[in-house]
Amino acid sequence: MHGNVTTLDVSKYICATNELARRSGLSITMGEDFEEYVGITSKIPGKRPTYPNFRPDCSDLFPGKAFWIVGRDREGTVAHVQAMRVDDLRETNLAEHLESLKSCFKDPDLKAGQYSSCRCYAPSARGITGVVAYRGDLWLREDFRGRGLMSYIGHIAFGLAWAKWAPDFIYSLVADWYVAKGVLGRSGYVNREQHGSVLRLDAEGIDDDDWLLCIHTPGTAELGRARGHC
Fold this sequence. Notes:
The protein is of the alpha+beta class. It is built from eight helices and eight strands. Helices cover 30% and strands 28% of the residues. Helix 1 (7-23) runs antiparallel to helix 5.
């Protein structure tokens, strides 16, 4: 783990935030089978289709390299989904990774399509290198919003990522509305920059201009506050 954060700290952190989510009516499960995950997300009313980053027909999502989280309400109906993957960027950086479209496709030349492109204008992206984790496909059902759950489910994902991969960076790419609504302050990210991913995937119907949100190392203060609640 980074710095003075131990595996035990992270275990307590995950346990504490999972318990807070459970008390709010959300039962959390996780998995690594992305055929199963896409089968779940494709049936959620009102949710945008899962992007190629987390679709096994487009990306390598081997066990140990990626995981998903699903939250269900007390009736067992899906109320939340998100996913994370890790990429080895020690020989490159995040800007190059995004612009190559390798963040979306194992083989961009074969899968991306002729008119697909990505541009990254976030200055910090060229300094994001090493073991880098991406969190995306985030969705929370409307009746669970506004109750502080964004914080809990974000911290569960971060804790699992730290325990599995000890990444140098964790990042997300989000739309303007995510930042405008103030979700950033509850999500755990420290840095934000506009135009982190200007992505066009014609075959997928994707035309995005997203903010880059990122953190560099685990929040030891947050982990400290989580201790003793499990």
